[in-house]
Amino acid sequence: MADQKPHWPYPRWIAHRGAGKLAPENTLAAFRVGASHGYRMFECDAKLSADGVVFLLHDDTLDRTTTGHGVGGEQPWSALSQLDAGRWHSRAFAGEPLATLDGVARYCQANACWLNIEIKPTPGMEAQTGRTVAAAAQRLWQDQPGSPPLLTSFQPEALQGAMTTAPDLPRGLLLDTLWAGWLDVARSLECAAVVCNHALWDASLVAQARSAGLRTLAYTVNDDWAAQRLLDLGLDGIITDRVDLFAPRP
User: Which of 55, 158, 201, 209 has its CA 20 to 30 A from that of 182?
Assistant: First the structure.
């Protein structure tokens, strides 16, 4: 795949966890707020309940963003579905439930939006989470071949599981540091993109990624100067919390 960019239908501007910090992250309420600011692509975090339901949660534990406690992946969906995932943010969102990938897929397809699903496994569940999320995504978007979700993860084992299960869904390797061998791993996982901490990107890294046929994305970009630097570098995707600051544009 070197020197050959894969098909890339996605908008450049991507709303982090639905709407950044304007609404409770990873909820359908956040997607609605992000969409109200003109965003048509969203990033979210997906993991498994104890009984295998794919739901949205960033942290391993429930305590920060819900009324629940403990490791989210150790609880069944019947318990998780009863939690309040909005009250922590503000009174306006009190009562907002946790979202499932099924619900998010319905929202995105009804509103012609794209989705970046970060596979966020409970520790020890990397491969299984990658397989299950990919299988769910393949099922949910089977009638939407022109707008497949982008599957990303910091965990190569999760991306390996996704590749084995749904090889045709595009994948991206997330990087917070340029650890030794990252490019070889991205190639071995047949990634379409690499998604880096925005501070890592420079002209040399962009050239290196492009020479390997990889699209270039950055997270989490919340300042004008950082966004302009990345636009000048020609990045393919910018993930931001500041849906109120950056108007999504080509």
Answer: 55
Q: Is 181 exposed, middle or buried (0-12, 13-18, 19+ CB in 10 A)?
A: exposed
How does pLDDT run across 1-31, given as a tens digit for each residue? 344 566 899 999 999 999 999 999 999 999 9
State the pTM of this model: 0.97
Give the pLDDT confidence of 56-100 residue by residue, as tens digits: 999 999 999 999 999 999 999 999 999 999 999 999 999 999 999
Active site residue 58: yes
pLDDT digits (tens, 9 = 90+) for 208-219: 999 999 999 999
Domain borders along the chain are 13-59+100-240
- Which residue among 16, 37, 89, 198 is the active-site one? 16
Catalytic member of 7, 37, 58, 69: 58
Q: Let me know: does 226 contact 245? Beta carbons within 8 Å.
A: no
CATH 3.20.20.190 for domain 13-59+100-240, yes or no, is yes
* E strands in the chain: 13-15, 41-48, 54-56, 114-119, 150-153, 171-175, 193-197, 215-219, 237-240
CA distance 41 to 115: 5
* Residue 89 appears among annotated catalytic residues: no
d(CA 175, CA 198): 10
